[in-house]
Amino acid sequence: MDKEIIKEQIMEQLEEVNDPELNIDVVNLGLIYDVDLDDEGNVDITMTLTAMGCPLAGMINGLVEDAVRKVEGVNQVHVNIVWDPPWDKSRMSRYAKIALGIAD
Question: Domain MIP18 family-like, which positions (predicted)?
Answer without folding.
Answer: 7-79
